[in-house]
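Progress report, Aim 2. The chain analyzed during this reporting quarter is listed below.
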Amino acid sequence: MAIRSVTYYQAFCDCCGVDADYGDYAAWSTRHDAVEFVIDDWWCPGRFVTDPIYCLDCWAWAEDTPGYDPATQKPDDIVRTHPTGCKKGSNA
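Predicted C-alpha cells for the chain:
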C-alpha cells in the first residue's frame, strides 16, 4: 500500500481559535468550501479568503451590542465582541 500527503482545509475563528464544526466532515478539499460552510452556519466571514473569520461567540450585529450608537454605526455593521477567553483582544 502506498501513502501520500494531501492538503485539506478547516476554518477556525481568528478571535478565539475554535474550529468550525463540520459535522460528518473533518475538513474540505478547497479553502472556498471551508469558508462557504461557515458562512452557511452564520459565522462572520470576511469578503476575501484572507480576511478574518469569527465564530458566533466572537461577533454580533452592531445594533445587538451594548453601546450601539445609531449616529455612528449602521445596525448591520459587524462588531467583534471578544468573549471571555479570547486570545486576541480585551475581554468584553
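Residues 63 and 70 are 8 Å apart (CA to CA). The longest strand covers residues 59-61. These observations will guide the mutagenesis work planned for the next reporting period.
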